[in-house]
Amino acid sequence: MDPDFDFDNTPAHGLQRYVTAVAAELGLAGECSSADPGPPATAYLAVRGYVPSLPDQNLALLWDEEFGWAGAVETRSGGPPVVISYLRGDVLPETADVAAFVAALLRGDHPGDPRPVRLRAYGAADDLMNRLSEYPTESTRHDHGE
Questions:
Q1: In the chain, how many domains are there?
Q2: Does 79 fall in a domain?
Q3: From first to last of its 146 residues, what are the pLDDT tens digits of the chain?
Q4: CA 93 – CA 87 distance, rounded (Å)
Q5: Beta partners for residue 45, in sequence order
Q6: What's the rounded Cα separation, in Å, for the pair 69 and 66?
Q7: Contact 64/36 with Cβ under 8 angstroms?
Q8: Contacts of 24 (CB under 8 A, 6+ apart)
């Protein structure tokens, strides 16, 4: 094994750092999130609050490497969350952009798009895996004023 290999600089660890950063931006703590390196890579965040038009269903955020972030509501039956809106743009947006999307959902606005908008193809030869591998740690983000 290469002695210079850094296990923290893998896409899987970077995805976990990114999801943790989004949770922190939303003021969430504890066991509210999960990240799965896949394939395909996915993540889940339980959000405190409800969409006003669906007051009896908890809000959640889902992420995957093709569609990026989506707002979803938990079903009463315990089935998979139902997506109500996709955040358009970058598949790996800034944490503040994700927080603004969630705030709009909680206000009852209709941000994003209710239709799935593929932001990249699964397994595409793009920079996503590098971006995840290089996603900074919390201390590095604070050192850079983020």
A1: 1
A2: yes
A3: 334 434 466 899 999 999 999 999 999 987 889 999 988 999 999 998 999 998 889 999 999 999 999 999 998 888 899 999 999 999 999 999 999 999 999 999 989 999 998 999 988 889 999 999 999 876 555 454 55
A4: 9
A5: 33, 61
A6: 9
A7: no
A8: 95, 138
Which pTM does this prediction carry? 0.86
Range of the domain at 100: 7-121
- Is 136 within the bounds of a domain? no
How far out from the chain centre does Cα 109 lie?
A: 19
H/E stretch holding 106 reads helix 95-107
Answer yes or no: is 127 within a domain.
Answer: no
Peptide bond into 39 cis (omega under 30): yes
Q: Is residue 143 in some structural domain?
A: no
Task: Please report, for residues 24, 47, 54, the alpha-carbon distance to residue 31 in angstroms, rounded to integers and kept in the order given.
Answer: 12, 11, 24
Burial level of 54, CB count in 10 A (0-12/13-18/19+)?
middle
CA distances from 81 to 57, 61, 92 (A): 10, 9, 21
